[in-house]
Write a structure and sequence with these properties.
seven-stranded parallel β-sheet; alpha/beta; 8 helices; 248 residues
């Protein structure tokens, strides 16, 4: 089943590596013009070049997702570069793990308030085209997260806010959905590092997944593309778990 995004404008916040990069490449591969942001200039430019190589408009902007002004500037620049925004993907995460002031404040700023700020900034463009918003949560939101108390709690709040956004923006024709990935592995990512730094934890998680492997970023990106497409025209306020049965 081919999904065509030719002419659509897609913005991926947190799009330089891992799941965000896969989302950017997947949408570009379906014909979309894509903008990505992140803090690391080198990986950001590498990802932008990969998107551009697919033959469509590619924009990248450095942004601090913990800073409202930085987010607003990026969204404005992305909309100007692409000619609007049809799909906004809020994918940035601080992966807050420490149960202290720093862990909680960082998680709140990046995993939650960045969604608020980016969506508010993109709203005029989304309204114009009856667009779509996708928020990345986590299966950590659905059970206790002893290793990462702030991360799990804030990701649970993301699911609640996704529901609320869906209710608020339906009158404008905007659909809002979420994705809760399970453990996803890619070079340089959290689980790639844990494979060597903490093999017992990695192996325990691996054994918990019925399919016997961790997920791929592209498997999250494919669900994002479905949710943003006309195939999901009657889907809003939902958070889809994509975990290979890990929660089972």
């Amino acid at each position: 089943m081919n999904i065509d995004f030719t002419g659509k404008k897609v913005v991926v916040c947190g799009g330089s590596r891992g799941i965000g990069r896969a989302m950017a490449l997947t949408f570009a591969g379906a014909g979309a013009d894509v903008s990505i942001c992140a803090r690391g200039a080198e990986t950001l430019e590498e990802a932008r070049q990969e998107v551009a190589a697919l033959g469509h408009k590619a924009h990248a902007g450095s942004a601090d997702m913990a800073d409202k002004a930085s987010i607003e500037t990026y969204i404005a620049n992305a909309a100007a570069a692409l000619g609007g925004i049809d799909v906004l993907i809020n994918n940035a995460s601080a992966f807050g793990s420490s149960d202290d002031e720093k862990g909680w404040m960082t998680s709140m700023a990046v995993d939650m308030m960045a969604i608020v700020h980016a969506t508010h900034a993109a709203l005029p463009f989304l309204k114009a085209g009856k667009g779509s918003v996708i928020n990345t949560s986590s299966i950590a939101a659905l059970r206790s997260a002893a290793r990462q108390p702030p991360y799990g709690a804030i990701k649970a709040a993301v699911i609640h806010y996704t529901n609320t956004q869906a209710a608020m923006y339906a009158r404008d024709g905007i659909r809002v959905n979420g994705i809760a990935p399970g453990s996803i592995e890619f070079p340089g990512g959290v689980w790639d590092r844990r494979k060597t730094e903490n093999p017992p934890l990695y192996n325990a998680v691996l054994k918990s997944i019925p399919f016997g492997r961790l997920g791929l970023p592209e498997e999250i990106a494919h669900v994002a593309m479905f949710l943003a497409s006309p195939l999901a025209s009657w889907v809003t306020g939902q958070t889809i778990v994509v975990d290979g049965g890990q929660m089972l």
